[in-house]
Amino acid sequence: MSTTTKRAYNFNAGPSALPLEVLQKAQAELVDFQGTGMSVMELSHRSATFEAVHNEAIANLRKLFAVPDNYEIVFLQGGASLQFSMIPMNFLTEGKRANYVLTGSWSEKALKEAKFSGEAVASVSTKENKYKNIPTEVEVGENDAYVHITSNNTIYGTQWKTFPETGNVPLIADMSSDIMSKPVDISKFGMIYAGAQKNLGPSGVTVAIIRKDLLESANTNLPTMLKYDTFVANNSLYNTPPTFGIYMLGEVLKWIEAQGGLEQVAKNNEAKAALIYDAIDNSNGFYYGHAEEGSRSLMNITFRVADEELEKQFLKEAEEAGFVGLSGHRSVGGCRASTYNAVPTEACQALADFMKAFQAKHQ
Ligand SMILES: *Cc1c(COP(=O)(O)O)cnc(C)c1O
């Protein structure tokens, strides 16, 4: 890291930290991209220069995430939130039921949107346990169009460690907050989607990975921009895509590759989260985690300071010490450290040290 660049200890939940190397590369080529005399933002999305950026990003995503050939990769807009609507519009076909596993606020929102398209139910929910855990089993009905899960619960700080078996019923996962944080067996899924702004780049791009047979049996009587087939048939260039976001996503993918790929990224993420969970677990109850141990997220670490007054003090002193984004989501309170791919180990170590020092000072 350049000694003249001031970088915050950024634990924001999203938009969130981007790799410094990627930001610096974007800065270096900002006003003259590859000798064009234009920035990426000023290129036509129909130009060969942009198309190469676009296609390289898709190809690298396929390679690094090991996406099989029978899946399409598309770039969409409207965030993960628009996918909550598009999924049932496209895949909740006549006479079928949509099956949602509720593990937090984002799955609740996804279910709410599905109800506009047809029959949608919460087959399993961990709400009664304050969303502290991931269920051990899901219930699959033979008439289900799909089963929807949220792989990582950004607000409550829980994460699926192994994915449920759904037999012939397609499994669809909102992976917004843990996509490409570890290798995943894509073949278990009918569809995976994620807003880019947590692990993949800036906000504005949404990635969807969709199995071809789902596309073939999807509803067709839909507005053009709400139909996946429009994006598939036009290589995600039906209308103007978020060109700068796609360029940045491509650079983040190259950065992931330079880290050693997803196996290495997963190891780094485990080690980073362990630094902070250890500070919680070794605090003799001064701090406590929200999530049950077996369901803990490696991306969003949710915790409390047992003494409520001290918790306010903790957040205040942390901010003064240069830590950003440690307040829990406004709906749940407490503290949350988001440790996405681009958050350096050094920042996690600094937070763990700060937590220990704060405890020693105030206990
Ligand atoms: C952030 C987030 C969303 C919402 O994403 P938008 O891009 O803002 O629509 C949905 N699901 C999960 C799991 C998230 O973390």
TrEMBL record:
Cofactor: binding comment: Binds 1 pyridoxal phosphate per subunit.
Pathway the protein takes part in: Amino-acid biosynthesis; L-serine biosynthesis; L-serine from 3-phospho-D-glycerate: step 2/3
Annotated positions binding L-glutamate: 46
GO MF annotation: an example: pyridoxal phosphate binding
Gene3D superfamilies: Aspartate Aminotransferase, domain 1, Type I PLP-dependent aspartate aminotransferase-like (Major domain)
Broad class of enzyme this protein falls into: transferase
Aminotransferase class V domain: residues covered: 9-350
Catalysed conversion reaction: 4-(phosphooxy)-L-threonine + 2-oxoglutarate = (R)-3-hydroxy-2-oxo-4-phosphooxybutanoate + L-glutamate; O-phospho-L-serine + 2-oxoglutarate = 3-phosphooxypyruvate + L-glutamate
GO cellular component: cytoplasm
Residues noted as binding pyridoxal 5'-phosphate in the record, renumbered to the chain: 80-81, 106, 154, 174, 197, 239-240
Entries under Pfam families matching the protein: Aminotran_5 (PF00266)
Any GO BP: L-serine biosynthetic process
Record PROSITE patterns: AA_TRANSFER_CLASS_5
Localisation: Cytoplasm
N6-(pyridoxal phosphate)lysine sites (modified residues): 198
Record carries keyword Glycoprotein: no
E.C. numbers: 2.6.1.52
Similarity annotation: Belongs to the class-V pyridoxal-phosphate-dependent aminotransferase family. SerC subfamily.
Protein's name according to its UniProt entry: Phosphoserine aminotransferase
Taxonomic source organism: Caryophanon latum
